[in-house]
Design brief:
The chain is mainly α. It has one domain. It contains 2 helices and no strands. The longest helix is centred in the middle third of the chain and has 72 residues.
Length: about 100
């Protein structure tokens, strides 16, 4: 092998290496882009699910409030007795501390 042939071989190897480096860089950029898109999708799904849970919790709270108001209106004396009992027990518990 002559010096010029060896030089051409090295130049060819360098060009091949540079092409492979560009291909790796492009693959890494594609992977990063896909990962970002996937993460955005997952975050969007999580936000949507959390919003649904919040709406469900709000609806249940309103239902419980309505049931409680209705119960108190139908049974005022019993409701007062329950409230006094809960207050008494809470007072005993807090007094011990």
């Amino acid at each position: 092998m002559t010096t010029s042939a060896a030089g051409r071989s090295i130049t060819h190897d360098n060009e091949t290496l540079a092409e492979k480096a560009v291909a790796v860089k492009d693959a890494a950029a594609d992977l990063a882009s896909e990962t970002k898109r996937y993460a955005k999708h997952r975050v969007s799904d999580a936000k949507e699910t959390a919003g649904e849970w919040i709406e469900t919790a709000k609806d249940k709270a309103v239902d419980y409030k309505d049931c409680t108001v209705e119960y108190v209106q139908r049974n005022p004396y019993k409701s007062i007795a329950i409230a006094v009992g809960i207050g008494f027990v809470a007072g005993l518990i807090l007094k011990r501390r």
